[in-house]
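Q: Could you predict the 3D structure of Cytochrome c domain-containing protein?
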Amino acid sequence: MEVDPGGDIVTPREVGDALTELGSCIPDAELAGWDEELDERFAAMRSFEDLPITLQETDFVSLDAEVLARRGTFAYAPTYPLWSDDAAKLRFVHVPAGQAITYDPETKRLRIPPNTRFYKTFFRAVVEPDGVTRYRKMETRIIVTRERAEDAIFGTYVWNAEETGAKLLGTGLDPASPDSRELYLNGEPFPDYVRPYTADETTGALQSYAVPGATRCVACHSGSESESFVLGITPFQLHRRPRGEGGVYTPDVLADELNQLERLLAYGVVRGTSTTLTPADFPKLEESALPRRPRNADELNMQAYMAGNCAHCHNPRGYAVASKATLRGLDMSPGGSIFGFPLNTTGSDGLPYFPSPPSSFDELAIQNSIPGGGIYRRVVLPTGAWTLREFDLPVENEEIGSFFNLHMPMHTASVDCRLPILVARWWASVPRDYERGGQEAPADPEAIELAMRAADAAEARALHDCEQHRAIGWVLEDTTERYPYVPRNIDWKTKLDDWIRAEEVTSEHEALAKKVYAQGFFAPHCAFPGDAPEPDTVEPWMINPGTGRPLQPWSAIYWANPGEHIYAGICANCHGIYGDAQTGASRALRATSGARVASFPDGLFGPRWAPNENLATFHGPDAGEHDLGPGGAAKYLVWMATGGTTVSFGRTPEEERTFFNVFVNNRIVTAVPMPLDLASAKEAFKRSKANMLGVARAVCDEIRTDAHRFGATYDAAAASGDWGLILSNAVAPEFGVPMWRDVCTLGNPLTDDLRAADASSPEVDAWLRRAVFNAGVMAYLYMRDELTNGVIAVPRDACELKFPRE
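A: Sure. Here are the predicted structure tokens for Cytochrome c domain-containing protein:
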């Protein structure tokens, strides 16, 4: 393969036919060269805009491995590869001259030097006119590393139909309109892109190839184990092992691939910190969590797949944890939580990760149990809603059985049937003593034999389910906000309610927003430090009455101001703890109803480079005749959360119901101590839908009536000093009473007449409207003053955002 004078890339048939995962050949070490000119050019780059427009201008000028080796660019393949909708892949790395990827045998970590370039080309199988299946180049991705992962430069080159060249996505791919760039709504490159191609040239059958946009790239790569933005370059990945060893799942591992580490050492791509490296210096997956070891081969195989496909999101720095902190305990990276993982663990949605084992060994019962596990459901179906009926199972409780599924691995259009099989076998392969309630019996020979049969039965069920639901599905995503800023609902100019226009944001609001309340204790699953200082005000419930000492470490007390409480309990479900709408809930809405959840730091409270500048849309010279006065943006926010948001949570009532079950459900009373009972909270969320301040209205109505006696219970404990009843409740909604009383009654006195009035009376409605406005202003002030400065509203059940998890 070579570049002709006109700039096209020409691939001789013999080179293309010789391609494996390691290129067209294995170059000898003496051929290893460098390219200092390109090193300097890439080192000077500062952003995407500096990347070469065509692939021919990069290191990747050929698929001929010898040509690339002479320029210092070498092929590699990971031990545990990422699945990408069955695309074939070819990976190359170029380390700057005189440098190397350094491995420290003591820490078992790699350091990738800045300015290292990684190239990954994706191929799709195509039936050519002669009936032979060959592979066509679709895209080539580039990552240029920097000292900090967040400064890495990355992009995607999309190959033309003739495969004679590739152009950078985001610079104008349409030859008829080369100046029309592919951009997100905010004007930045590069969005999702769909490239059509002829999959069968004998029939003319067309297919679409999905190229992920920049936000998808960031979502996956931000969890890079080497903290370099690069995936697939870890000690476990570089040291290739034979199939069947260490959970390796690639069909064939050739001898040249097994020698990969020695080859990269010989090329100078990899070196040790001080000593001569050998494969023995590199870790083994099965020993990554010592003293814990895998229960059996099925658990090792599960960890192996996760190492390549799941761990970049499901680790403490990954997207999964960033979007849902309660997933921190499900660390899928090597050395994480998989080996010996408790199979009775329940997710934050209240549903179990795995089904309960049947009371006796029965292969049909085992097969029918499989869909009851949350992890299995997340991997077996493409995006969509399903009920137990789709698995031909009886429906005893459809509301609990229903589930909205954003399938894993993320950002794939179809389902990798290996994954549901691995998950099903992982659960079923655990030896159990059925005479003792199904408890684990790892050393019982009879239990081990039954477990092998159970795993085979589970595999058959998983394969059946997956083959029924492999439909292709890809939803173009754009979670950015328009720039210059455009409010999500421009009808605010004419339809904003008069009662909201009449309200004002006062100094009393500003003062209350800064008041911090002690609201019970964090959910107890973190290692709370014992050296935190005593709070300025020690309340009686914080002290053990028998010893006079703190009931729990001072650091375990859950503190929040009103805005943090309201944001964490009401807003974060969809908008996320960072306010950027990078959540499973937002993706679910996009996939069903097409709704786009707002990113607050980029939209109303943006732009990021000038926080809160967009607030001027509602007050000041930019607002013109539609000026809402001081606090105008707060009024807009309240309107959007009380009726101005018209999107639905699904295309059908069933989809709406399943959305609530998965993304709201029990967390509405566990995220913060909100004084609502679970049934009332669920009803409030379902009734309010996207107009989430309807939940605040329900809370303030509870403050008004004390129908469930949360206020009376709190007052009785405060008067008597007996806090046992409240503290015995893991949720303890009573601890939210003082804060909500202050919010609901700010400039809004609660009289005895109002307490006794009918809920439908105009007087109660007016009082609740003012209370809701207060709650909305609290959330607004938190986002204006804290969220834009990176202050997270930590939920009560997510102590891991502040402290190490136990």
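Q: Anything worth pointing out?
A: The chain has three domains: 2-99+115-213, 342-468, 492-516+577-793.
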